[in-house]
Amino acid sequence: MSDRSVLIVGETLVDMLPETPGALRDVESFQRRAGGAPANVAARLAALGSEPLFWTRVGDDAFGDFLLDTLADRGVPTRFVEQDPDAKTTLAFVAHDDSRDRSFTFYRDGTADTRLETGTVPTDALEGIEWVYVGGVVLASEPSRSAVLDLIDRATDAGCSIYFDPNWRPELWDGEDASVLRDAARSADVLKATTDELRELGYRGETPEQLCEAACSEGPHTVFLTRGAEGSTGFATSAAPWGEAAVERDGFEVDVKDTTGAGDAFVSATLGALARGERDLGEILRSANAAAAISATTVGAMEQPPDWERVESFAAEREQ
């Protein structure tokens, strides 16, 4: 992967992780962790050996300072990381159920990541960018929505490949029409989603492969479908540079501590593999499943992100 051949776009926020599982109203203490799906992807790509550019915005406050320090510590270039003097940093309080799955309560009304500005990433900066990853949360609010949609249009015109993750969080849309997510999915080359997300976007199919095929019929040439502990599915049409394919890979069993960021680990591995030239969807899914499983063994979405050697050794050990 060439340095800075990837641009990540979206939110950076603080995850407040509960010390104990249960309803949020019953949790007495939390651990502060850096989060936001795009930020997690950027940090994990950096650990995999890239230096992805990252366009995001945090508040000019203590939480924003913490996030900027964390991104720098993780090796993420901060050229397009802005600190907003007039807005706070987004907070997300997480609740875990008994299986360590999570739900979110966001404090995000007018916060910095909702205020991305059109033109922050100039068109000439897209000239050397091969992949642009966009997370769907940033599309839930203006002016960030318009700014990011403008970037997608300019990146497409510049010949960049678009990787989109809807990251559906219904509580952020507050009953608003979320059709913009389906529009963004149509404009993508690669779409990563869960089964539930594809159905929320209006796609229909009885099997994972049928859901992927339905999504591809509207634009993307490749879909990566995550299915939790069951593993993942990769589907590509004949329009994909790597050719037509439909594959499934089982997940890896681990002692789960926190699933926050596991999907982002999957994204970073698929995106990193594509950007470095991998074309075998089965191998890409194997690495991505391993990266997600490793993530679930730690608390926090950016903690101890693995390099490629660790991902490969993890997968190989569990396949013996």
Automatic annotation (TrEMBL):
The keyword Nucleotide-binding applies. It comes from the Archaea. InterPro entries: Carboh/pur_kinase_PfkB_CS (IPR002173), PfkB_Carbo_kinase (IPR050306), PfkB_dom (IPR011611), Ribokinase-like (IPR029056). Signal peptide: none annotated. Keywords: ATP-binding, Kinase, Nucleotide-binding, Transferase. GO terms for molecular function: ATP binding; kinase activity. It holds the Pfam family PfkB. CDD domains: bac_FRK (cd01167). Residues 4-305 form the Carbohydrate kinase PfkB domain. PROSITE patterns: PFKB_KINASES_1. Belongs to the carbohydrate kinase PfkB family. This is Aminoimidazole riboside kinase.
